[in-house]
Amino acid sequence: MKTASIRRQTAERVRDTLERLTTERDIWVSTAAPERGPHQVPLWFRWDGRAVWMCTGGTSVTARNVREEPRVRLALPDTFDVVLIQGEAEGFPARDVPADAAQAFADKFGWDPRAEEGPYLYVRVVPKTVRAWRGEQEHSGRVIMRDGTWLEQGPLAGTLADAPLGH
Q1: Is residue 5 part of a domain?
Q2: Which pLDDT does position 156 carry in this prediction?
Q3: Distance between alpha carbon 53 and the CA centroid of its chain, in Å?
Q4: Contact 56, 121 (CB under 8 A)
Q5: How many domains does the chain have?
């Protein structure tokens, strides 16, 4: 694996992050509850251009924590090409999830939680802060979204954000 890279400008980091959000499958989800502490799991996800959509068992620790404390952190699974997302989670029981969001999730993964017997909770996270960096040389300037606004958008950013699902 390549460990050195050229420092990217903010617009390039935004473009690269949006591309990864569109193409990757797994994301680490960190939740917490005051009496139980932190909890972290990997889940499949889908980016709709504005939010990350995931699905978990309706009685899971993640679902319980999201209901009690909606602040979450998400991370794409690469320790060299880091993408960290902070936001607030909104839960949708499978019967109440917007149909376009659920269908897009099912299309991406070939699995539709709405057809399962057990309860499932779709979790939508709209990013408030995004940090992205590759290596130590990019630690400075790693915040690429603040208060829900991309700091600089490259040409790819607009095209991906134009295809939202399940607002």
Answers
A1: no
A2: 46
A3: 7
A4: yes
A5: 1
